Amino acid sequence: MDFGLTQDQRDFLGALEDFAKKEVAPLYAKQDREGRLDRGLWKKACQMGLLSMRVPIKAGGIELGPVASGLASEAIGKADPNLATGVIVVGGLCALGLQKAAPTLQKAYLEPMMKGDKIAAFALTEPHCGTDAAALKARAVKTSAGYKLSGEKSGVSLVMPADLAVVFARTDQKAPGAKGISAFLVPMDINGVARQPLLDMGGKSLERGLIFLDEAEVPHDHLLGEEGEGFKIAMQGFDESRVHLALMCIGAAKATLDETIAYTKERSAFQRPIATFEGVSFVLAEHASLIESVRLLCYKALWMKEQGLKHSKEAGFVKALAPRLATNAIRDCLALHGHYGYTLDLPIEQRLRDILGLEIADGTSQVSKIVAVRELFGKEYLPYGPGRL
Ligand SMILES: Cc1cc2nc3c(=O)[nH]c(=O)nc-3n(C[C@H](O)[C@H](O)[C@H](O)COP(=O)(O)OP(=O)(O)OC[C@H]3O[C@@H](n4cnc5c(N)ncnc54)[C@H](O)[C@@H]3O)c2cc1C
């Protein structure tokens, strides 16, 4: 067993840590206050390879592999978990879908996405369903020119700045559940597409929102993959993405723990540094031990993916655990900063709000356990039975 990094991985991580410190962290609070994504920062993040690292070389990406990509999620998560979520998870999921498109469309959309010139949204959730995504109602009707899409998508990240969306809609009204769903590339500037922002408590630079589709027509080649393949396309990247989200939470928690350890060594009460009180140091040691345990499970899951091994159970475990553990750690760190922790001058309150959203995104913690249950108990014990994809 080797816990070390290769020289390439160390170099990549060093460059990312530098980027996170100099370019990302200074804009973290600003984007929150303004409620907007900084597109210049997004472009720089893409130029660092944060979106193309999960795209195969044959599709124009730099294909760094799951473990190196995980290091990126953790490093950027320390400085800005929202940017990490947008570029690495949402960008990565959309890029997976777009690899099913014809080469001309990949050139027109995937290439500019990897350079940071276009932003894509991943539109699966609807107002009436998120966890039970196979119950979606948006429909796509075949026409002589292409497909007309109608319906409503809700809760979707990056809706407001998006230039395009990967939209999941039902092409077969009779096929049950997941089987009738297809995936489409939808440019956001075509007739019949409208959007509306959501007012979130955190994750503000993710600019989540709703998409309204009213007979929005796309050409035939905007169908990604085959008709009926949409749900498979939606789910194919979720295992790895869940681990990335977990590592972003871990990054945010580790940054906060480091800051808090330093603060408790500086801050005195009763003529002693507060770090010398076990009521303080044991709290931080316990959080650090839990965060490190789940961090190692994340890298095991990514290593398994790299070996071509099934890693759904591990992905479910870490997505269920990491956001909760990170939230608990950040909450205690906030309190250990006394009243300063409660101010907007420190990044702790923002991290708390942002990480709470990651507990829900890409599957809530309860639902992440369903993924683990499928592996532990068998498909017969799933809430929706064994028949779904
Ligand atoms: C920050 C953020 C970013 C997001 N980005 C996107 C995006 O880019 N694209 C997109 O399509 N969606 C996105 N979402 C939406 C997200 O995927 C859904 O919110 C999530 O899947 C849950 O769906 P829901 O909100 O409809 O809750 P519901 O499915 O209605 O669930 C409500 C509650 O019931 C629980 N529950 C449901 N079924 C079970 C069960 N069988 N057992 C136990 N508990 C259960 C859930 O865990 C939850 O607590 C985002 C959400 C957030 C918060």
Explain how this protein is built.
The protein has about 400 residues and is α+β, with helices and mostly antiparallel strands. The chain has three domains: about 5-120, Butyryl-Coa Dehydrogenase, subunit A, domain 1 (Orthogonal Bundle); about 120-230, Beta Barrel (Butyryl-CoA Dehydrogenase, subunit A, domain 2); about 235-380, Up-down Bundle (Butyryl-CoA Dehydrogenase, subunit A, domain 3), CATH 1.20.140.10. The protein has helices at about 5-25, 30-35, 40-45, 65-80, 80-100, 105-115, 230-235, 240-265, 280-305, 310-335, 340, 350-360, 365-375; strands spanning about 120-125, 140, 145-155, 165-170, 180-185, 195, 210-220, 225, 270, 270-275. The strands form three sheets. Strands 1-4-5-8 form a four-stranded mixed β-sheet. It has a four-stranded antiparallel β-sheet with strand order 2-3-7-6, with no helix packed on it. A hairpin with a 3-residue loop joins strand 2 and strand 3. Helix 10 packs antiparallel against helix 13 (about 365-375). The protein starts with 6 loop residues before the first helix and ends in a 12-residue tail after the last helix. The relative contact order is 0.11. The model has no long low-confidence stretch (mean pLDDT about 95). Flavin-adenine dinucleotide (FAD) binds near residues 90, 125, 357 and 366.
